[in-house]
Amino acid sequence: MLIPQLMKNCFQLLCNHKVPAAGFKSTVKSGLILQSVSNDVYQNLAVEDWIHDHVSLEGKPILFFWRNSPSLVIGRHQNPWQECNLTLMREGGVKLARRLSGGGAVYHDMGNINLTFFTAKAKYDRMKNLKLIVRALNTVQPQLDVQATKRFDLLLDGQFKISGTAAKIGRTTAYHHCTLLCSTDRTSLSSLLKSPYQGIKSNATTSIPAVVKNLLEKDPTLTCEVLINA
């Protein structure tokens, strides 16, 4: 099965060990590393779910990098009026999107790297993926203190959240996606992820607040480009 041209236009191939880049065939043996060329949250979420639904991942994992222009992404079971400042979002032209995975609300901008690990369901392993990210960070800055938690977050210096996790598990395939705070606008993050509405009662999943920090604040050499390359 070939990936449609419309989908191919959404990303570039960073690594393909077995099949020439022109192919993009699902018969690849060692997997793919893809990077989106779009900064549109709706397009990137659509590509993500298309890969999950249409690409055979048995023995052929995919790692997908993507970044969005300012947007706020809520989990599958969340209430936007509880999670977001919708008025500020409208005033600032910040997009609202609902993903198909669970978890909490996340602010995206060009300083926030998104990583999606696609595997066959039997190979699904969030901790393994997070440890891969930690190893990559340590290759560029060995002094970084970054640890994965039991909640599958990444903490910097034992207290600052730099990555949150969500997942979707299908019948035969699964994906785990997470963020990596590099140089995001923390003022926008905190203001947009604070609903002005109090007392709303629903069965929706609520986000768990956390103290966050950008990796660039820890080390000014840790740009998004450096981290993606690592």
From TrEMBL:
GO biological process terms on file: protein lipoylation
Annotated pathway: Protein modification; protein lipoylation via exogenous pathway; protein N(6)-(lipoyl)lysine from lipoate: step 2/2
InterPro entries associated with the record: aa-tRNA-synth_II/BPL/LPL, BPL_LPL_catalytic, LipoylTrfase_LipoateP_Ligase
Single GO term (MF): lipoyltransferase activity
Limits of the BPL/LPL catalytic domain: 57-230
Gene Ontology annotations for the cellular component aspect, listed alphabetically: mitochondrion
Similarity comment: Belongs to the LplA family.
Entry protein name: Lipoyltransferase 1
Species per Swiss-Prot/TrEMBL record: Chinchilla lanigera
